[in-house]
Write a structure and sequence with these properties.
The chain is of the alpha+beta class. The chain is built from eleven helices and eight strands.
């Protein structure tokens, strides 16, 4: 970090940083909630079971304690970070904790103006900057989270049932026809509306749930003795090799590296492919 400023009344710490091309930050977390605005360059951000690409003018919301890793692109990246006490966010926005604890990504254009407004105060602060930064930040987060809530509420009941079915049966080899019959609508309509509402195909969503299941198991100290093959088969993967390949592509590290990042040591699994 080569520039830093604390807006004490708003309890928002702003930082500006440059990361070199190919820089890697292994899986880690922050005690404060971070909102990251990418000025230029790119970054791959892995959180939970999703890998997100941050491009110029995009925003990332990383809740406090959320484990994540970063890999910066071929031109590196210049970023502006707003770090906030998570309790302050909940008190100001009067939101239920599930909303403030969910990571989220916003592409360029949606909230760029509000982020730039905060950045300008960071560059040239005066006696009114604290008030302006607090108001702008609350407007940014309020609109961002309200948008996500409205998108979820906009999904019809049958589509929410499809999502619940995938959560209940992600380990099983569901077909589009099976899902459509359960929902009572045409298969093509299910596929189109699911992608529109949730931004991914049903297959991609099911894969994400499988990876997330394995990741949760790997992070539990009580599961140190569990073999990777057993975890893979239990989550619905066809083999350890298949799980390891998908896990690495989605999370950005191998299952063994993920275990190590949580301070655990992988047990020897002689049935697995290392």
């Amino acid at each position: 970090m080569h520039a830093q400023l604390q807006f004490s009344n708003a309890r928002i710490e702003c930082k500006q940083a440059h990361y070199h091309a190919g820089a890697l930050r292994e899986r880690h977390y922050h005690d404060s909630t971070w909102v990251v605005f990418t000025f230029k360059g790119s970054c791959s951000l892995s959180m939970r079971s999703a890998e997100n690409q941050l491009t110029p003018k995009s925003l990332a919301y990383v809740p406090a304690g959320e484990a994540h890793s970063n890999v910066f692109g071929t031109q590196g990246a210049d970023v502006f970070v707003m770090a906030i006490d998570p309790a302050w966010i909940g008190n100001r926005l009067d939101l239920l904790s599930p909303e403030t604890e969910k990571p989220r990504i916003a592409p360029a254009g949606l909230f760029t103006g509000m982020a730039l407004r905060i950045y300008r105060e960071f560059q040239s602060p005066d006696t009114l900057s604290d008030l302006i930064v607090e108001g702008s930040f609350l407007e940014l987060l309020g609109r961002w989270m309200r948008q996500d809530v409205h998108q979820h509420r906009g999904a019809p009941p049958w589509l929410r049932r499809v999502k619940a079915l995938l959560h209940d049966s992600f380990r099983e080899p569901l077909s589009l026809t099976q899902v459509a019959l359960a929902a009572g609508v045409h298969p093509s309509h299910v596929a189109r509306e699911f992608h529109r509402a949730y931004g991914v195909t049903m297959g991609e969503y099911q894969r994400k749930l499988r990876v997330e299941s394995v990741a949760q198991q790997l992070a539990q100290p009580g599961k140190i003795g569990a073999s990777l093959t057993d975890l893979a088969l239990d989550a619905g993967f066809s083999s350890h090799a298949h799980m390891a390949s998908v896990f690495n592509r989605v999370i950005g590290m191998t299952p063994s590296q993920y275990r190590k990042a949580h301070g655990l040591h992988q047990s020897v699994d002689r049935r697995s492919i290392s």
